[in-house]
Amino acid sequence: MSYIYGGVCAAKGFKAAGIYCGIKKSADESAAHKNDLGLILSDAPCSTACVYTTNKVKGAPILVTKKNLEKSGGISKAVIVNSKNANTCNADGEAKAERMCELAAGALGIEPQEVVVASTGVIGQVLPIEPIENKIDELAAKLSYTGNEEAATAIMTTDTIKKEYACEFEIGGIKCTIGGMAKGSGMIHPNMATTLNFITTDAAIAQPMLQKALDEIVKVTYNCLSIDGDTSTNDMVCVMANGEANNSEITADGADFESFKAALYEVMMNLTRMLAKDGEGASKLLECECSGCETKDKAIVIAKSVIGSTLFKCAIFGEDANWGRVLCAIGYADAEFDINKVDVDLASEFGRIAVCRNGAGVDFSEEEAAKILSSDEIMVYVNLNEGDASAMAWGCDLTYDYVKINGDYRT
User: Fold this and answer.
1) Of the listed 65, 194, 231, 233, which one is catalytic?
2) Terminal CA-to-CA distance of the chain, rounded, Å?
3) Above 80 in pLDDT, residue 203?
4) Spatial distance between the Cα atoms of 342 and 189, rounded to a whole number of angstroms
5) Known catalytic residue: 194?
6) Among 14, 34, 322, which Cα is nearest to 157's?
7) Phi-psi region at 109: left, alpha or beta (left = phi > 0; alpha = psi -120 to 50)
């Protein structure tokens, strides 16, 4: 398995594009405009799997996408997505999302039910459809096999960097490719997926197996991510497989399915890390590995509890080796364990230091710990010493800038 450039255009048969259409006008009209409308198109029909937010308040695009995939039997050919407006909690939201599908379908010569629609941005503001109507033909004309960066830029809100990843792998000796793009910087604490994520592959895989793979991998990647404890209304992960690699279609469990899942994990895990590192106002990526557990589910719960701790996130920002906050977060996790067996280490590129053994503090150098915590990527190792299962979770520190960004996000 090897990394390659290309994001959602890395796999055979996928085009993408992004454009500025003016969904939310900038106060400074002389300023450079950022893309706010993106499009992905496959040359061939795609088996399509999605997971959606479990928030009881769901964005209209999610409701429309679910209906479209039900009508098409899990087949799609295109994605249309906008930023700057979430199209959520609006009386005309579903009508606007359906209209976006109609506009994309008309410009691409496909059926509306073959379109996945997504939106991200401010909640509770009516989505202006006219800018999309005015620019859809121009956007469709820009589609290219190298348009991945323009599309990745179009889905950014408070993100400071675009997020893309792709890799090559083999199924039955046939080279396949999978790649994706993601957006997200705040309002991230998923119970299914994180933010908006679109993944494309040229592997041939039946829709039920694609859904199974996504359900399994999202559990150990995006669902192990927390920036600020808020679960978004518009979270969606969509995976499209067009079969252009011409491998034997994956229709059941086995070696080929495991190879596909490994590649899907590679893409989703790296996008997860990018999302964590680019958390709103963040200065440090925070990773927690919980090992020595009886079950993977317990390891996930504890690792995510640690990286979700507001107090520990603040300590990481202050480069303070306050390991007691790790024990506190472990203690309120919904899991049973023997605290007298728990070990904790802190680590980075500058070294690794033991701060807790058997549930109690050990002597360590505060100077050495401060040096370790001065890195922009921090690892926390938690070992329950009770079994062989382990899991990872990802997050970031909590800084002054997070409050600044969200204090005037709408205005």
Assistant:
1) 194
2) 45
3) yes
4) 26
5) yes
6) 34
7) left
Query: Whole-prediction pTM value?
Result: 0.92
b/e 21-57 (16+ beta carbons within 10 angstroms → b) = bbbbeeeeeeeeeebbbbbbbbeebbbbbbbbbebee
Which of 54-58, 83-87, 112-116, 354-358 is least confident? 54-58
* Digit-coded pLDDT (tens) for 355-397: 999 999 999 999 999 999 999 999 999 999 999 999 999 999 9
pLDDT of 235 reads: 84
By DSSP bridging, strand 115-119 and strand 343-348 are unpaired
pLDDT tens for 122-176 read 899 999 999 999 999 999 999 999 999 999 999 998 888 999 999 999 999 999 9
Strands of the sheet with 351-357, listed across from one edge: 360-361, 351-357, 343-348, 377-383, 285-293, 389-396
Q: How many CB atoms lie within 10 A of CB 154?
A: 28
Tokens of 198: 């679109």
Tokens representing 7 are 């994001």
- Assigned token pair, 295: 């079950």
Distance (Å, rounded) from C-alpha 59 to C-alpha 53? 9
Closest CA to 227 of 397, 378, 382, 380: 397
**Alpha-carbon gap, residue 263 to 253, rounded angstroms:** 15
- Kindly state the tokens that stand for 409: 């996000």
